[in-house]
Amino acid sequence: MKSVISALCAVVAMSAFAQSGPTFRTATDVRDGVRGSLVGTVTSVMETTTNSTIIVEPGVQDIQVTGTGFQQGAVLNLGSGITSGPTVLIDAMHLKATLTVDATAALGPRDITVTNPDQLSGTLRKALKVVRTPDLNGNCTVDGIDLNVLARAWATTSADPGFSPQWDLTGDDVVDGNDLAVFVQYFGRRMPGC
Ligand SMILES: [Ca+2]
User: Fold this and answer.
1) Is 42-132 a CATH 2.60.40.10 domain?
2) Span from the CA of 1 to the centroid of ligand 1 (angstroms)
3) Which residues of the chain have pLDDT under 70?
């Protein structure tokens, strides 16, 4: 009987620490012998100019991260080609930071990891999506001239002669509605950091 009770206690204890979705690791939180006191999550990330999950390369863009358990001095990691400036702690549920996306950053979804000063960290998978800049003529504003370029490139693919990867904002080798969806996020705007 004793072993059954022990097993039950273990299951209950494991359940108490089980989290759905991205979580801060609790296994390494052994400060003061207390586990789980700083458990938290990263629930969403937003680029604050467009209120979207799109970030452009190359570009300098501000993001806000939402979750729980954030601490002053938390550090962000978004993988190769993206660097984050120091985070600004708004409160335990919100962080702000400025990202610099290199011209060579890989396109596509990016995970974000928030690491607190005590090394507890949480990750949200596919939090942001890196795309090519919709400022196709490089004058820092996304306007009708850029739209004209996109329209002329419409429905072309990487197999077409004269195809320019610059037109394919999403990097999936075709210029289509997915690229237009990216474009409209920035239409009429000055590119941040440009
Ligand atoms: Ca595309």
Assistant:
1) yes
2) 62
3) 1-40
